[in-house]
Known about the structure:
Rossmann fold, 5-stranded parallel β-sheet, globular
Amino acid sequence: MINDKQKTISELLRNADKVIKAGKLEDAMRYINTVFELDGKNVYAKAYKGRIISLMEAQGISKEEAERIAAEAKLIEPPPQPEPQPEPKKEAPVRPKVEQPVKKPEPASPPTPPVHKVEPKSFATAAKEPTRIRRSAAAVEAYKSLLMEIWKDGAITPDEQARVDSMRDTFAITHDEHVHIENAVRTATYLNAIREEWRKGITNFEPLRTKFKITDQEQIAVEPKVFQLIQSLQANGSVLVLDDDESFLSVITTVLNDGGYYCFTSTSGEEGFHLLETMTPDIVLCDITFSKAHMSGFAFYEKFRSIDKFLTTPFIFLSALDQDVLIRTGKKLGADDYLTKPIDTEMLLATVEGKLRRSRELRRGTE
């Protein structure tokens, strides 16, 4: 049964969708902030906020300024209460009507054909027309994040499906793109569900296949990832290592494997985020400097921390440059530790073991 609060939120989201399409982004953010006031974790509001910020950036507004505008957008005021109606006045006595003589109608003149005059569009008129919703990489990411939240429990209700269908147009997602994104999301959430079942001691994953609508062909394709996941769960912990030096990656993988850890590696931040779609590391080791074509380690860290499930994942920076300025920058960002190359293997293993033990203790404390 939908309660009054849910009805209000649905109406606010519908209004937000309309004004986004009309190009009134600040007004849209007012509706979204009102939704957050009612439900701070609403997944649709989070997705809409990301879309609004990406559209502001497309208009030339910096991300920082767009986020400030979004945060400061005022809430929608409650509808005004009806004013009390004055008491009805006493009616005056009705006077008898005096009939007037009826005049005969004059013959009608032939109708003048209408003149169709085309007026040029003024700037003001053009400004009122709905703006064309432009697509951006941020829009795709926001839409993907929305589907990840919805598919988290392996089931989409008819109401959720209707909301997703209406949002596809706002996010400028084609049908084929939606199918591709949703298939990737189902695989990722299916693997996350396997991880949770394994931790509960459950090893029969067949019910999950039905829950996440995994076909036989998809199961064959995802089987290697399931095998990697089980390996990482059987190890002391899984470690994601990012470094553009492949020889260093080979050495550090050997050290970590010998220490009982499952290691998966990446030579760039972009590739690392692709791995994160299906793998969830217990700890991350990341170089700071990559080639100019790729994001820096600091940029990867900030994007990594922006994902809710990685807010408390231990993160250690690696660098061959023993410079105070880099160490200070890493610590200001909130990294858990900083190791310099060449890496001392005993120090590396001790650091990883200590950070993982502390992370697990904190997680148990919150469960």
